[in-house]
Amino acid sequence: MVTIEKIQEFYANQFEAELVQEIAEVGQLVQFKANDMLIDFQQIIIGMPLLLKGAIKIMREDFDEGELLLYFLERGDTCAMTMACCLGNKKSEIRAIAETDGELIFVPVTKMDAWIAKYASWRSFVFTSYQDRLDEMLRAIDNLAFNDTNNRLKNYLIEVASVNKSRTINKTHQEIAYELNTSRVVISRLLKVLEKENFLELNRNVIVLK
DNA sequence: TCATTAACACGGG
DNA sequence: CCCGTGTTAATGA
């Protein structure tokens, strides 16, 4: 059961009391661990997540089995894909994997529709979420189209450090290569250069930004 | 020029 | 020994 306090803590200024009450009644509190798979491709979405704590990475599958990191979700965010799926009864086009440990509230699909009509605050939450995700998607596309791998890697490292709230990144070169949809050789080489530039420090399984 | 794939050596756990 | 890392050589876009 979701406590009203928890919802208020994170969404207090956004939702009217009555809506907070309803979320508390039907919402389901879910704890997740880093690397938990929360949503997979083709999966049918049965609920919508309201992220309280932690970070979730949203991945897109490539035509040839590769993957690509689109963006991270953080506290107060929700997944636009989920909303699109809920409203359109479609399967997921993305994969959501926990980047860190965290906590979210799961709201059943059935309520989503009703609340859009009933609560102005929910309606604007849904719309601004769409807007935010679209903006992030555009940034992801720009990054991909106009940046070389070196800059993509830098941006990626900075973003990862930010969502983990730590300058220490616990990832292997292979994992990074996978998320940026490139090869490990390239990542190893670029990281080595960045180390020489004193941008970071390399250790086994650990990268420390300076 | 820069990425990819394959291959290999090194070394820490 | 296994895995992550660093590097090279060949090939391609």
Q: Can you describe what's shown?
A:
This protein is of the alpha+beta class and 210 residues long. It folds into 2 domains: 4-145, Jelly Rolls, CATH 2.60.120.10; 147-209, Arc Repressor Mutant, subunit A. The chain is built from 8 helices and 10 strands. It has a 4-stranded antiparallel β-sheet. It has a 3-stranded antiparallel β-sheet with strand order 1-7-3. The chain starts with a helix and ends with a strand. The structure holds a DNA duplex (13 and 13 nucleotides).
Number of domains: 2
Q: Which segments are poorly predicted (pLDDT under 50) over 5 or more consecutive residues? A: none
| Radius of gyration from the alpha-carbon trace, in angstroms | 18 Å
Q: Give the SSE order as H and E letters.
A: HHEEEEEHEEHHHEHHEE
Give the strand line-up of the largest sheet. 2-6-4-5
Number of helices: 8
Q: In the CATH hierarchy, what is the architecture of the largest domain at level 2?
A: Sandwich
Key attributes of the depicted protein:
210 residues, alpha+beta, Jelly Rolls, 2 domains, 3-stranded antiparallel beta sheet, 10 strands, DNA-binding
Question: Can I get a quick summary?
Answer:
The chain has eight helices and ten strands.
Set out the fold topology:
Layout: H1 4-11, H2 17-26, E1 28-32, E2 37-39, E3 47-53, E4 56-61, E5 67-73, H3 80-88, E6 94-98, E7 102-108, H4 109-118, H5 120-146, H6 149-164, E8 168-169, H7 173-179, H8 184-196, E9 200-203, E10 206-209
Antiparallel strand pairs: 1-7, 2-6, 3-7, 4-5, 4-6, 8-10, 9-10
Helix pairs in contact: 1-2, 4-5, 7-8
This protein binds a DNA duplex (13 and 13 nucleotides) through residues 148-149, 172-174, 182-186, 188-189, 192, 202, 204-205.
